[in-house]
Design a protein that fits this description.
binds adenosine-5'-triphosphate, single chain, alpha/beta, 25% strand
Length: 242
């Protein structure tokens, strides 16, 4: 049994089929890459897995449980969390407070309980933010804001983390540092799906790649197989901006 099984996932928005009968699995301890051009349906897949969107068809199974269209907080409690493509920190709170919000009990505006300062520093340190706990997000460079989003996702203690374009807007050095941090999370036992536009940032990180094109699976394989795949190459050459 795979940790996550997506089977025949379809998501329509009116007349538009954003995800079209897509199936893939992720095994425990794996890092799966999902690539595809703008509008391919990558974020919609994540939104369906997290029940941000209800599915049109198909099933999503996590740890053997059918989680299709379950309330998002229940999915998080089962051990899934997601880093969205757009960062949404709260600038009124410092980095530590932003992380703490994700450790509070699941009640509206609960201000008591949650993780200790030591635990919060622990989440921050896994993405190199331990010295910036007192700063507010608007004081941070872009790469640190993205890392804060990952620390927030870590604070729910996930088994499987979905990362939507974690490297976007980062320079080469920042990409290298974040890749090392993601690799360290994997060594601690975390399973991950990483979405990106292309292979460049993912090549050394992922075990396997699923290529999505117009909501369907175009190819699947190891990074080397995908780099050599003719169908993928011709999709690249069709100028769709992979
Ligand atoms: N809430 C929505 N309502 C209507 N259409 C949507 C919605 N969300 C996504 N879509 C459409 O679904 C398709 C897939 O979008 P999605 O955001 O999943 O692509 P993506 O692969 O993540 O693209 P990008 O690389 O630009 O982030 C697009 O045509 C998009 O316009
Ligand atoms: Mg997207």
């Amino acid at each position: 049994m795979s940790l996550l099984e997506v089977d025949g996932l379809t998501k329509n928005f009116g007349g538009l089929t954003a995800v079209d009968n897509l199936s893939f699995t992720v095994d425990e301890g794996e890092i799966l890459g999902v690539i595809g051009p703008n509008g391919a349906g990558k974020s919609t897949v994540f939104n369906c897995v997290m029940s941000r969107y209800s599915v049109t068809d198909g099933t999503i199974t996590f740890n053997g449980d059918d989680i299709t269209d379950l309330d998002t907080y229940k999915i998080v409690n089962k051990g899934l969390s997601r880093v969205t493509q757009e960062s949404d920190p709260i600038d009124l709170f410092p980095v530590g407070g932003n992380i703490k919000l994700f450790t509070l009990p699941n009640s509206l505006l609960s201000l008591y309980g949650g993780a200790s300062d030591k635990e919060i520093a622990g989440y921050a340190s896994r993405v190199g933010l331990e010295t910036k706990l007192q700063e507010t997000p608007d004081e941070l460079p872009h790469a640190d804001v993205r890392r804060l989003e990952i620390a927030k996702a870590l604070a729910t203690e996930p088994e499987l983390m979905l990362l939507d374009e974690p490297f976007a807007g980062m320079n080469k050095q920042e990409i290298g540092t974040l890749s090392d941090q993601i690799e360290a999370l994997r060594e601690e036992g975390m399973t991950m799906i990483v979405v990106d536009h292309n292979m460049s940032g993912l090549m050394r990180l992922v075990d396997r790649v699923v290529v999505i094109h117009n909501g369907s699976k175009l190819a699947e394989g190891t990074p080397d197989e995908i780099a050599d795949n003719e169908e993928v190459q011709s999709a690249y050459l069709s100028g769709e901006g992979f």
